[in-house]
Design a protein that fits this description.
Layout: H1 2-10, E1 20-24, E2 32-36, E3 43-47, E4 51-55, E5 63-66, E6 75-80, E7 86-90, E8 95-100, E9 108-113, E10 120-125, E11 131-138, E12 141-147, E13 155-156, E14 169-170, E15 179-181, E16 187-190, E17 192-193, E18 197-200, E19 203-206, E20 216-223, E21 229-235, E22 246-249, E23 269-272, E24 278-282, E25 285-289, E26 297-300, E27 306-309, E28 316-319, E29 325-329
Antiparallel strand pairs: 1-29, 2-3, 3-4, 4-5, 6-7, 7-8, 8-9, 10-11, 11-12, 12-13, 14-17, 15-16, 16-18, 18-19, 20-21, 21-22, 23-24, 24-25, 25-26, 27-28, 28-29
Amino acid sequence: MKRFVFLLLLLPSLPVLSQQLVLLDSGRTTSLRGMSVPTSTTIWVCGSKGTVGRSVNGGKVFEWMTVAGHEHRDFRDIEAFDAQTAIIMAVDTPALLLKTTDGGRNWKTVLQDRRPGMFLDALYFWNSMSGIVVGDPIEGRIYIARTFDGGNTWRGLPPAYYPTAEPGEAFFAASGTNITGLNRQEAVFVTGGARSRLFIRDQKIDLPVIQGGTLTGANSIAVYDEKRIVIVAGDYQRDTARAGNCVLTSDKGKTFIRPATPPFGYRSCVIYVTKERLVACGTTGVDVSTDGGMNWRNLSAEGYHVVQKAKKGSAVFLAGPHGKMAQLVW
């Protein structure tokens, strides 16, 4: 009896593993890779076949649209500011960014580049005015363009300032999260392929993740503060392999450590929910960590491409193949 009472006293201190995925009915079968969540009730997603979706009630109902004139384009990233304003990114040539200010009824071309080899990969905005887009290398230099007026106009860097890439080094347009903010002014990004590196200010830091193949390397980076960073990677062709699929740094890339229990396969996206809580997803499932990324627990074997937390709010949503969408409830 004494032992039983002692165990009862311990129960309140045990961690509560109550995370669960609540499936949302998107009503679509389109592959979705881009997601932006301005608030806990406003969700934007985008995907193949010119598809864009929007919900203004936390995912209960989605409004779907096919962007006129772009029915065959693949939209891989989206940055939304509110229920009316968003920018979508089309991959492949021509490079294309489109903006709406009326909830998706009309779209205006704000960036177009027809150079051979153009392939945009990810968008990031620090605030409603200042943003950046990155793309695969052109003639050995990584493409970068900036906006300072909310995405209405974009300007490339002076040629000498484009970062150089190694042969076979590029980005994966897997979730729009291989670039993010380091602080309120600077961005950091990760590459993959033949070589996988972290680009931070003037540094190019080799990552201790799987790399060397066409579809290997880093896919996503999340920053909690300027020093605490998590990166997920993998081999898309061997998506159940766990070796070299995640690294952590707490000193801005000076040193890296691998998790004691890594995510459960190839992962295309990772986010911080809080300092200790993280979520990662990929083709083989969804994982959560409650200790800053040192140990991961598989929450679902269902594959998702992208996960995002509300910019204003605490809601977490996921999107993936065949129109699959879910909310992560903690």
